[in-house]
Amino acid sequence: MDQIYKSIIEALIFSSDDVVPAAELIKTIKGIDGDEIKITEEDIEKSVESLNSNYEQENRAFLIKKIAEGYIFATREEYANYIGFLTLEKSKRRLSQAALETLSIIAYKQPITKPELESIRGVNCDYMLSTLLDKKLINISGRSETVGRPLLYKTTKEFLKYFALNSLADMPKPREIEEIMQDEDFLEQKRKIMMNAIEEEVEKETADETSNDNEAE
Fold first, then answer.
1. Please, are residues 99 and 131 in contact by the beta-carbon 8 Å criterion?
2. Quick check: pTM over 0.85?
């Protein structure tokens, strides 16, 4: 693969706000330089490996990750705590503890019906399912063959992107989850998220009270 095409691949991935499949990169290159250009998905993968090798040698804070069957720029894991702290307040897609629990059950048990999900969680899941559907982290994959033929739910490519996974096979095993749950950094981040959620709730209640007072006047 010529250096020029390696740079083009780098530019295309860098300029995208979303994961770019190898097929899309090939289509773009051929769309400009002609169909006679010989470039394969293997060439794309080798170029990405070469670029990542360069980034590592130069001690860059980022790399190109392969997730959800495509490529995207990402910062290195060792900087996750700093970035997480910076973006915590600005997060627009934060999931509540209940939503995370619901999503994790769907991820590990999919495809799963609402009655099965509720029997595991022990509570009604209408709102959580609606939230996860709105965020496109899950979708309806069909109907079960059981009595009443309830809907089946499964995770989506957005789920893979959200958790930076290339495939469902990359999800942590139950043993690994137990280790993560005991990690000090994880516990600290969880504490911050919970405190932030409490502050948001207090602010919402205060705003509602102020609004009610104004209406009463």
1. yes
2. no
